[in-house]
Amino acid sequence: MNRFDGQTAIVSGAARGIGRAIAERLASEGATVAVADIDANGIEGVASDIGGSSFAVATDVAEPDSVAVLHNEVINRTGRLDVLVNAAAIVPFVPWDDLTFKEWRRVMRVNLDGIYLMCRAASDIMRPKQYGRIVNIASNSIFAGTPNMAHYVAAKGGVLTFTRSLATEIGGDKITVNAVCPGLTDTEGVQESPHKDMFNFVDMLQAIKGTGTPADIVPAVCFLASGEAHWITGQALAVDAGMIRH
Ligand code: 4PL
Question: Which CATH number goes with the domain that contains 213?
Answer without folding.
Answer: 3.40.50.720
